[in-house]
Amino acid sequence: MHLFPLHALPVKESYLLDLFPNGVGYAPSCQLLQQVQLRQRPDFQSFFAIQNPTEDLFYADVEIESIQHYFPIEQTTILRGKDANRNALDTKIANLAEVNCLHFSCHGSFNLNNPANSCLLLNGAIVNEKLDLNKCLTLGDLFNKDFNLNQCRLVVLSACETGIVDSQNISDEYIGLPSGFLYAGSSSVISSLWTVDDVSTAFLFIQLYETLQNYPELKQGDIAVALNKALTWLRKLTSKEGEQLLQQIQPYIDIMFQGQDDILKDLFIDGAKTKFKSNARPFANPFYWAAFTAIGY
Fold first, then answer.
1. Which residue has the higher pLDDT, 295 or 256?
2. Per-residue pLDDT tens for 21-43?
């Protein structure tokens, strides 16, 4: 059942999440839910992000550049592009013990045959068209005692298939990247159940962090509430509102393409505008929003 977006179940002319204004949350097991409920994490000031390590996710750059401004600059650490490699992450691993929010904007991969090898791809992970797990962050790594997230309120996995779990395992709780981050100490994880669209994903998480600003001291359950609001906002976003948001993030797009050919920037912007022109509510289909789940508490 963990493979299904239950919050997106149709109810009459709406969806299940509309019936629960306090959000719809998920947990690997009742035992782990009890544990995360005891983790009091009101602080939400320090931010650590992995940004587009494979350098092929253009909206991942816009996503992180937009989100970072919600956090104090002196408490923000971002590993970008080529700098977002396994060696760089290992040198910063001690810093993660003080992080309140950990955000990965990258590619993800679930390994059905060996779930411990499910991973988030870092720079240099693809060698001769093959995946080098030593240059990734794997689920197995998260069970390493050095990976300490004991101050972390939220881990965001803005990547494909990060919420998929081992459906062949008959243990009491599922095995997947979300449970790994909970085991490492975080109290909440947001992940995805399938391959997601880059434009809508960037818009969703920019809105999520803006929504979280209304919670100066995060309380238990607030992550699910904020995600619920952000998902509802994305579903109802009109083409006109999408174009207005695109204008708001234009400064971050300009920074991203600084020193490059303006033709590339125009193609990048036109790609988003094409989605807005195709539908009055371009992201209303559950494909764009239902993949994301709030796991933990």
1. 295
2. 889 999 888 888 899 889 888 89
Q: Cβ–Cβ contacts within 10 Å for residue 239, how many?
A: 17
- Work out the number of other CB atoms within 10 angstroms of the CB of residue 4: 11
- Do 104 and 192 contact (CB within 8 A), yes or no? no
Report the C-alpha gap between 13 and 48 in whole angstroms.
40
Domain carrying residue 241: 24-296
Opening angle at CA 72, ends 69 and 74, nearest 5: 120
Q: Is residue 2 part of a domain?
A: no
101: CATH? 3.40.50
Q: Is residue 17 part of a domain?
A: no
Give the C-alpha separation, 22 to 30, whole Å. Answer: 19
Answer yes or no: is 9 within a domain: no
The pLDDT value given to residue 248: 87
Rounded Cα–Cα distance for residues 64 and 67 (Å): 5
pTM as predicted? 0.92
pLDDT for 172:
45
Which tens digit of pLDDT belongs to each residue from 219-272?
878 999 999 999 999 999 999 998 898 888 888 788 777 777 677 677 677 767
DSSP string, 57-106: -HHHHHHHHHHGGGS-GGGEEEEEGGG-BHHHHHHTGGGGGG-SEEEEES
**Closest Cα partner for 195 from 86, 57, 296, 95?**
57
DSSP line for 156-188? EEESTTTT---TT--SSS--SHHHHHHHHT-SE
Please report whether residue 129 resides in a domain. Answer: yes
Q: How many domains does the chain have?
A: 1
